[in-house]
Amino acid sequence: MGGREFAMTAELELSGIDVDTSAPVLVTGATGYVAGWIIKGLLGAGVTVHAAVRDPKNTAKIAHLVDMAETSRGDIQFYRADLLAEGSYTEAMTGCGIVFHTASPFVRAVDDPQRDLIDPAVKGTTNVLSGANEVASVSRVVVTSSCAAIYTDAVDCENAPGGTITEEIWNTTASLTHEPYSYSKVLAEREAWRIADDQDRWRLVVVNPSLVIGPAQGPDPTSESFAIVKQIGDGTMRMGAPQMGMGVVDVREVARAHIAAAYLPEAHGRYIVSGHNTDMLELAQSLRPRFGRDFPLPKRALPKFMVWLAAPFVGLSREFVAKNVGHVWRADNAKSQRELGVTYRPMQESMEDMFSQMIERQALAS
Questions:
Q1: NAD-dependent epimerase/dehydratase domain: which residues (predicted)?
Q2: Residues 172-193: what's their mean pLDDT?
């Protein structure tokens, strides 16, 4: 990766955040994409991390976290937990001052949206935050939500006041049959605020990222982001990329936002964490200067009518195409910059780091 290698080996940049190392913290979904960078930042600051995973005995799955701890100031301890099992997180949470709840599926193609998306998101949130009610040491809970809890389709952004989504807006257009992933994020975040509002001992802070891009800490990331970037690079979009409005943000900025949300005294409410208002074609074109000679990256926009015709064959609904392709996505990230101190790196840097890593791990072949 040449000059980019530093981005993977350096500690997460946490200037301006006074990280309290006197109590351990819990991170749910510890082997996940965002969680990996949160844990890296916490370990680098000297925190003891209680990592909740499905199977602590799966050494291959947690090896990168073990290695990370061995070269950091902090320590890591693993706990078995299940999103759907009531009380599953109590042991891991005991003694923790902060809870980071990142565990939630991010996939588009599922057989049963209720079982595969809604239940893990909502019941998992209920179990984790109800556990916080039972564990007296917890003073703050940071939940990873999504901009999907604010909007469903890019046309919703255009229809928002000023054509821009803000933290005051809630998604009212997703459903079990239209963008069930977005629906799962709405329901889960609503449940988080319901539980938080029913007590006054711990504070809830919610991070709402747009599409997360950038390199992963884990060896086999399952985030939908990697599936999208693979399609950009493997020739799937060689005839053109749809101009589908979206926001993107580097995973390292998302991780920093979580840690700031946990430790800055004034952090409160929801935070849109999104670095760039863009579309699928722009995302692909950001890779062309460095990788255009070796990979079949799209050079032009795919006409909307062609995307509409092909939609059912590539796992998209024609309603989704109508409401996203050719529509501008715009979000206001001022609160994250002002209150959490987040600064956003160039989109090209994030995409190049991500793409380089995928090549090295043979997820892409030139």
A1: 25-267
A2: 96
